[in-house]
Inverse folding.
DNA sequence: TACATTAATTGCACAGCGTACAGAAATTGG
DNA sequence: CCAATTTCTGTACGCTGTGCAATTAATGTA
């Protein structure tokens, strides 16, 4: 049961730790977007030669995976399992939290979607979600299906929002993004797309907190209909 | 009203057309994955020097945008507006169609999510969706919100499926993907993630047709609850 | 028919990327 | 003090997007 990470190894001492590599990557992600999260960029950030990074991770994908894990690990799973709060509220809190955190560095969600999410923090999140949905009255099979549905919904919504942001810069405020959309929507020919043009005001607000919560509520409605079967 | 694309221009004749550029890109996408859709790869496919591509598109992002538009344009919108079919069935058909088409070249959905979907084919799809949801009894505002919800759901589900596929190769059959997942899930420690381990069988099938349809049905349930308010 | 104009294509170059390989530097157990 | 072991660096290869200048091909006009 000894910590088998410390027992005084032989060779040269490490200049940094794996966590510092991840930290440097996240620093780049926030400051210069997802494309800037490069091996060479991270190395420069740490004052190392590019290939020194390969001491800590086998390839770029592994670094990305560790970053994803770190981002997922920041979520407050305790709030998710607090059984004194209604289950729908708990999910709303988690979803809002994830959205805020992931849109803080646009491009982060693209990292999530660039590989399977199979790390321990991803598992922990899934497990907590299953617990909430059991509280909601779903049997284990339905709870599992619903948990995936929720993850799809949350990551999908965030990904679509992120898709229309130019990667660098930590995302303008929502009001500004809505205004930009409204401006672009005014160019739509009302004769060819009458319904779209007519609903332009609502469409402009697709990237708002309200639409995000509305969509989640419809999903939760659908899930709730399967409860205590 | 004359075709202002033909009136006999002056300089050298174009070796290919914009559509051939897009076709070459899609050929690469299907054969060697999203990463292979490079300017140089397209140029090689067409027998041109790399920078000749810049005659047709200003940069790589524009090429990607055209590819996305082309993929969206392949969807059968007529089936969406056939009012003799129940509206839920029509949406299921469209969703299944999109999934099949996008998973045919994994990585395609990442292209969709790499920029705003604001081309004419994207607009046409949105417009058709609004019509279906009007048929479902939603007022224009709710229909707009629901249409975005549906797009989020469909693209999110496809993106999550694509995320765990190694980009090249046109996606193994579903049964094989489920088997692979089941294998990986057997490694999950049941003591730390009891619910996850217990539902492993269901979780393995997250990438199945059934889960896709199940999730869509929950979303449609939620949307249906807002009809004829 | 000859020439000038215009557009498409090419060659070359630059800066960046991931990463493989060999060697130098640093640290420790014996 | 030496040998073993680990980390870090130098160098290099092949790939990417794309800007600039020169070349090639097609046309309208004289």
């Amino acid at each position: 049961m000894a910590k088998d990470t410390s027992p005084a190894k032989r060779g040269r001492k490490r200049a940094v730790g794996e966590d510092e590599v991840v930290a440097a990557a996240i620093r780049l992600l926030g400051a210069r977007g997802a494309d800037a999260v490069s091996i060479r960029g991270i190395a420069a950030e740490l004052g190392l030669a590019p290939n020194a990074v390969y001491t800590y991770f086998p390839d770029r994908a592994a670094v990305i995976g560790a970053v994803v894990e770190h981002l997922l690990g920041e979520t407050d799973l305790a709030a998710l399992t607090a059984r004194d709060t209604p289950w729908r509220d708990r999910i709303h809190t988690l979803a809002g939290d994830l959205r805020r955190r992931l849109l803080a560095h646009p491009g982060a969600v693209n990292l999530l979607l660039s590989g399977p999410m199979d790390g321990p923090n991803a598992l922990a999140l899934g497990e907590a979600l299953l617990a909430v949905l059991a509280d909601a009255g779903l049997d284990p099979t339905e709870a599992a299906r619903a948990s995936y549905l929720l993850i799809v919904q949350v990551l999908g919504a965030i990904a679509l929002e992120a898709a229309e942001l130019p990667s660098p810069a930590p995302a303008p405020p929502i009001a500004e993004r809505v205004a930009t959309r409204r401006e672009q929507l005014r160019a739509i020919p009302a004769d060819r797309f009458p319904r779209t043009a007519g609903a332009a005001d609502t469409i402009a607000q697709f990237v708002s907190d309200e639409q995000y919560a509305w969509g989640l509520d419809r999903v939760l409605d659908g899930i709730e209909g399967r409860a205590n079967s």
In short: Chain A touches chain B through 57 residues (CB under 8 Å). Chain A has a mean pLDDT of 93. Residues 8-13, 38-40, 50-51, 54, 59-60 of chain A lie near DNA strand C (CB under 10 Å from a C1').
